[in-house]
Design brief:
four-stranded parallel β-sheet; 8 strands; elongated; alpha/beta
Length: 221
């Protein structure tokens, strides 16, 4: 049902799918659903799991799914002994993790109405990344899921071991950098979007057009 939901959401215009869920093993139909959604222009994101294990859970483990781990308030991977005192869960980590986001005592709405400030787990980290992915689409609607994933990775704040590491992936999500660096881009302006003519043998033709930059940084073309 979840795999079919991924396909349905993508077919019905979802730019981002956020899955605060996990469990089970590799199944072809779920992998195919995520691959389909990605090829259809949808960024698929999932939580890595809360077992403090050195292996991330499915569906975050599928190749085309952005895998999101959780941080403690002390800028570290949430683990059994992290500073928040919650010694009953830790964020799964390992090969395939992309990024981490806050995952302890997150304020949010509740199913029954009202609010709570105790939304915990990689399930609360995952929506942070989905929200930033939505911001990326809002300022750069033409990006594809690979672009979104790459932007999230390269604009993350490195924590833990230098560079990519199996505990925190590319680092802590940074919404400001993702959006600001996309806004400060060149913007190509061409006076004639199409130029059509026929050149006879042994002859030449000339046609003039203008190329401009309406953006904020240098343009190379």
């Amino acid at each position: 049902n979840i795999a079919e939901g991924v396909t349905w959401a993508s077919d019905n215009g979802a730019d981002v799918i956020s899955m605060s869920l996990g469990g089970g093993m590799y199944v072809t139909y779920f992998n195919n659903a995520i691959d389909y959604a990605t090829s259809n222009g949808t960024t698929v994101i999932a939580a890595t799991g809360n077992d403090d294990l050195g292996a991330i859970s499915y569906p975050s483990r599928y190749d085309n799914c952005v895998a999101v781990g959780a941080m403690s308030p002390c800028n570290e991977r949430k683990n059994f002994s992290s500073c928040d005192g919650e010694n009953f869960w830790g964020s799964n980590y390992g090969t395939g993790i992309d990024i981490v986001a806050p995952g302890v005592n997150i304020p949010t709405t509740t199913n029954g109405g009202g609010y709570t400030n105790q939304f915990n787990g990689t399930s609360s980290a995952c929506p942070h990344i989905a929200g930033v992915a939505g911001l990326i689409y809002s300022v750069s609607p033409g990006v594809n899921p690979l672009d979104v994933r790459t932007i999230l990775q390269i604009q993350a704040d490195d924590i833990g071991s230098i560079g990519y590491d199996l505990e925190t992936g590319y680092g802590r999500v940074n919404a400001n950098k993702c959006v600001r660096n996309l806004l400060n881009t060149p913007e190509l302006v061409v006076s004639d979007p199409e130029i059509n003519f026929i050149v006879e043998p042994e002859s030449t033709q000339e046609q003039y057009f203008f190329v401009g930059n309406a953006g904020n940084v240098d343009l190379s073309f």
